[in-house]
């Protein structure tokens, strides 16, 4: 009986000691897809202001750069095959162009599609006007039309 | 003309007659009486509820066939070449030859196709590569279709 009592006491003591030493298991976090940037959790009024700012940023980039490419990744490190094609074509034309990485700003990524009424990235603007995506740039390059258009910018 | 094109952009010799992938089956011209117009909203909602599996390609083919009455149409699911789950229908190439493109600039032709597939694009298509030619342009190009570029990971880190 004494042995039983002692054993139970020992086990209870061990349990309380181990409870301090072993931290509780973390609660499982919800799985969040990394395919798309996380959507904002801002209040509606704040998000409207942020979207408006994104549109102004787009207008500024398009207006201040003769050739502007909205793409995935950067000029040096494109993160999309179609964006890479667009960069390669503009480089092949010796064009001076600026790029914006839409993966860095989900609001710009969404609003650029509304701005041009064009659903995909990349998007190329020349002299403030939307020209097209990589397929159109490729056809314009092959026909010579792109180089002609870019040459006129230098005049 | 090919001499002006950098090597990385040289077209493959994919011909219209040879499917690029097993899913790139050309859809031949149907007579106007056999055309059926699918309900566009039904296509997008039904397919979206099935998590974009399977029927998206068929839906795209039906819509383009009905609207463009093309002499040649290929809808190719290129999702397997991209950083998306197996079985996805998120990246497509459309090759369409139609008299509807006569007199239209490139941008207008692409906008026409984008408009026809607006619901699918809203529902989750990430990329839509388009080749839109008239019959004479197609003949001049000898049915050559530029290959789509290799994936570079996209937004996946």
Automatic annotation (TrEMBL), chain A:
Give the UniProt entry's GO cellular component terms: mitochondrial matrix
- Keyword list, A-Z: 2Fe-2S, Iron, Iron-sulfur, Metal-binding, Redox-active center, Signal
> What is a GO molecular function of this protein?
metal ion binding
Give the Gene3D superfamilies listed for this entry. Glutaredoxin
Asked whether the keyword Mitochondrion is assigned, the reply is no
Cleaved signal peptide residues:
1-19
The answer, when asked if RNA-binding is one of the entry's keywords, is no
- Superkingdom of origin organism: Eukaryota
Task: Please name the PROSITE patterns in this protein's record.
Answer: GLUTAREDOXIN_2
Q: Domain Glutaredoxin: where?
A: 67-131
User: PANTHER family per the record?
Assistant: GLUTAREDOXIN FAMILY MEMBER, GLUTAREDOXIN-RELATED PROTEIN 5, MITOCHONDRIAL
Q: What is this protein called?
A: Glutaredoxin-like protein
Species, as recorded: Nannochloropsis gaditana
From TrEMBL, chain B:
One GO cellular component term noted in the UniProt record for this chain: mitochondrion
Instruction: Give the signal peptide as a residue range, or say none if absent.
Output: none
What domain of life is recorded for the organism?
Eukaryota
Identify the InterPro entries for this entry. Answer: BolA (IPR002634), BolA-like_sf (IPR036065), BolA/IbaG_stress_morph_reg (IPR050961)
Family the UniProt entry places it in: Belongs to the BolA/IbaG family.
Kindly provide the name given to this protein in its UniProt entry: BolA-like family protein
